[in-house]
Amino acid sequence: MTTTHPPTAQATGTRTLTLAKAINLGLRQALADDDKTLLMGEDIGPLGGVFRVTDGLQAEFGEQRVVDTPLAESGIVGTAIGLALRGYRPVCEIQFDGFVFPAFDQITTQLAKMHYRSRGKLTLPVVIRIPYGGGIGAIEHHSESPEALFAHTPGLRVVTCANPADAYWMIQDAIASPDPVLFFEPKGRYWDKAEVDLDHRPGAAQGTLDRAVVVRPGTDLTLVAYGPTVHTALAVAQSAAEEGRSIEVIDLRSISPLDTATVVESVRRTGRCVVVHEAPTYFGAGAEVAARVTEECFYSLEAPVLRVGGFHTPYPVSKIEHDYLPGLDRVLDAVDRAFGF
Amino acid sequence: MTANHDATNVELVQLVTPAGERTHDAASEPYRARAAALGTQEIRAFYRDMTLVRRFDTEATSLQRQGELGLWPQCLGQEAAQVGSGRALAPQDVVFPSYREHGVAHTRGMDLAQILQLFRGVDHGGWDPAEHNFHLYTLVIGSHTLHATGYAMGVQRDGLVGTGDPARDTAVVTYFGDGATSQGDVNEALVFAAVNQAPLVLFCQNNQWAISEPNSRQFRVPVARRGEGFGVPGVRVDGNDVLASWAVAQEALERARSGGGPTLVEAYTYRMGAHTTSDDPTRYRSRAEEQYWRDRDPLTRIEALLKAEDGWDETWARDLADEADALGEHVRTACRAMPAPAAASMFEHVYATDNAVVEADRAWFADYEQNFEEAR
Q1: Which sequence positions of B are flagged as catalytic?
Q2: The domain boundary residue, chosen from A171, A188, A205
Q3: How far is CA B344 from CA A26, A91, A171, B220, in A?
Q4: Is A200 a catalytic residue?
Q5: pLDDT tens digits for A302-332?
Q6: With contacts defined as CB-CB under 8 Å, which chain B residues touch A288?
Q7: pLDDT class for A5, splitting at 50, 70, 90?
Q8: Strands B213-214 and B209-210: what pairing?
Q9: B-chain residues within 8 Å CB-CB of A77?
Q10: For the domain that residue A326 is a member of, what is the CATH number?
């Protein structure tokens, strides 16, 4: 069944890449590095995925390694588990955030627990890539942010990238991890471009599966973001700087495990903390950050930890999604309130 | 009662009647030669397997009643389907069981006492799946059929299908029940197995009851016929006939190993016991129905066959009874000796790598425990 292909010409050098292309090259590198790595998903073959993230990979690595699956998400993840048990490293693509739920049982009940219930005898190196988040004018079920549902499940790692360089390294780190990883891709930022050094991992791209990173230093308030809202947070910090406020921006990168230490160290210096994400704030990742910061920084806080995010409503229609999403103005409003205490 | 016993529109492969007489018809003809090749020793071996499995199952039920196990799902009545199919496996074949496949575990050479860890509440698994190519039990109905399918897709990629080398060609078999056929995952497993022509046998033990729900609450078309819509050949075998179960499973496994793709086997059998020790079948099924199936007991029919064919020997039978007693004693002793794990073991193996959240919880718990130590 194995198809042979000519040796892969590796991508090298420093290139200007979109976030989508950076993931593509990260996947390509992982496929080239380990012939046990497989990609599985709907329309990821000749089409290259609906976002073209897997563009060209089936032509290069063959149908046995880049697999167009039946249209059944539970089947994709369930068979990926079986392939992992046989020694493969499957990378599943879920086409859109809102389509992951047919696989929810396989992810939370089977994938997350098999290492535990086998007392370490089985490892499940499965990556599940999920384009997530809104702001792209999509129809229902195509703009959601379900990360907290998975972060609440012990046994899963939940990470998200915010820029092309992290995307390139993080996807490779996720595939190399012996633990199952939910890899959330901010689809609204797929076409952001940045320079990526494909040969040398920068310091900031170390420990991408565990460590948050300070992406803009500041002294007066810690603004915690991840995925699509890192871009917003940086714009907020720039805008606040013009009013004389120094905001430190942290990109969590990992939702589970949370890098509490990096956030706590920052908040102890700044005394203020705002968390921003697209997902509803109610029982969201921000609530966990707020609880942990409050416990560990209580005597440093000048204000309660505030959260900005989606409301406790289903994701609204696209014509009003910008009133739902935590944009520049709503985050600035929270910053103002934090300074008002 | 008739609804449950109705073999509507599908032929049953049977090689030995409930009375222990050899039989064949058009449906069983393709399998007859396989069974005819079995000698007395092989048939005795089947009988021995079924006797030991039944003894283990009975012992486990008693242990639950004595408070040693939290729960026990009996395989009583399903010994022939499990032993027959289990003995058709090659050593390299891999099993993905549900949670009632104690008979299959026995054929894989497992120490059956290991299974009790899960039901005693001392381990969520209890054995190393690689040791006997027997995966951990799966409690969520049907989920594991997809794992088996993916595993079989891996076997294909490893080049271990259709090589013609009987020591290398590998099949995967997954066990599930009649209730599971309603699950989406089982249907998705059929889809994935079919389009990939995976080396898989989907072995459904139709034991007539999904806890309290009869077949009529699960499907309008017999299980064996449901394969056709997926492009998977289906066959219904008398699951209380160990020879037929063995022959049908053997043929399906050979097809899988040779590259012929998946097969759906419906082993038509009966759950003679309760769903589990927490169930009460008197609330939903009749004594008459239970008697109908007691008359089709998989052990008595092989006893009758051996006696009819001069294969029964009283000394051998007594030795087997002694062996069964010894197994019961072993299981009872092993079960009672299984200690509860240390509380802090709950923090182990959540992840394969270091995890700050788990480590923080572990450290907190250790401190908390330490406080009690110091207070003493």
Answers
A1: 271, 275, 284
A2: A205
A3: 39, 33, 33, 50
A4: no
A5: 999 999 999 999 999 999 999 999 999 999 9
A6: none
A7: low
A8: antiparallel
A9: 146
A10: 3.40.50.920
